[in-house]
Amino acid sequence: MFAKSAVIASFLNLSALILSAQDKDFVSYSQEVKGTSLKFDMAAIPGGTFTMGSRPAEKGRREDEGPAHQVNLSPFWIGKYEVTWDLFEPFVYKQYEARLAPGSVSAEVDAVTRPTKPYLDMTFGMGKEGMPAIGMTQHAAILFCKWLYTRTGIFFRLPTEAEWEYACRAGSAEPYSFGSDTARLGEYAWYAANSSAKTHRVGEKKPNAWGLFDMHGNVAEWTADQYMPAFYKQGSNKTLRDPLAKPGKLYPLSVRGGSFADNASSLRSAARRGSDPDWKRIDPQIPKSNWWFPEAPFLGFRVVRPAVPPAKEEIEKYYNTPPIPDY
Question: Is residue 236 part of a domain?
Fold first, then answer.
């Protein structure tokens, strides 16, 4: 028991030393995608402890948002904006990436598995430039992160549910990052009441206190977690450290933030949702696509970069876990 505790303590001390050495560099920045003219903004989110979930009296609260519990998170960077088609499309289409690159696409980048060509317009007529990429599976979002890793040498991944909610709240304990007054929601979010039933260019509304745009609305966002309605019960009367409901099955996976198609209640910081096989209902393929949800024009994502990256073996495992077939 003593030996195990000593190992854990040593690991935590090492992590603290590594992070301390990085403190001077732990600031928001613009990430360039090597070999292209592309770049995207990453916001530095300090580590800390917050109350995850909603209070029993919160208007619109659902049972899967409780019990509210304490979570301690390590620092990380998160995308200032939702991933746009400008960044996602070069991953989808090798030929398009080659046109953006001043030289040839490297063999390592070329070896990254790319999505199958969608059989319909995955923008759903809502546009591309500056618009959030939509309709991809969680698997596609993870492989996009691998493409970024290959291009930049930096580990990116999807946010955990806890990281996402912490970043969304930006220090607020109220239903929304700006408070509880739904009359102000239109200042920060595109949702059913003001979106005209479509996505909008990222960053057009006000950001939260940590400079993140569209955390409420525009498109709902993938997280890294399995959606488990009762997952929060494990946090009763204790503080969880960097929790993750590791996926073990294809459905449901956790989605956060609400979208242009949702009402105000679904845009609350604590609101949760699970992915649904009905999002592939019209997919004619057998087995169904591992890459696209042809009935999810409301679904996108943003990326996270942990301040202390995992070991290379863990990175490879994250990127190379094969998808679960969808029949």
Answer: yes
What span, in angstroms and rounded, lies between the C-alpha atoms of 116 and 290?
A: 9
What is the pTM (predicted TM-score) of this model? 0.92
Supply the CATH number for residue 247's domain: 3.90.1580.10
Residue 220 lies in a domain: yes
Separation in Å, CA 20 to CA 30, 268, 308: 21, 34, 10
The first and second tokens of residue 66, run together, are 């409780």
Q: What is the pLDDT of residues 44-99, one digit of tens each?
A: 999 999 999 999 999 999 999 999 999 999 999 999 999 999 999 999 998 888 78
- Nearest Cα to Cα of residue 217 among 251, 193, 249: 193
Residue 54 lies in a domain: yes
Identify the burial level of 203 via C-beta atoms within 10 angstroms of its C-beta, where 0-12 means exposed, 13-18 middle and 19 or more buried. Answer: middle
| 3-state secondary structure at position 42 | strand
Least Cα distance to 124 among 302, 303, 299 occurs for 299
Cα torsion 255, 258, 261, 262 to 10°: value is 120
Torsion, CA 102, CA 108, CA 110, CA 112, rounded to 10: -130
For 99, 141, 188, the CA distances from 103, given in Å and listed in that order, are: 9, 26, 40
Structural domain range at position 180: 27-310
Tally of domains within the chain: 1
* Residue 205 placed within a domain: yes
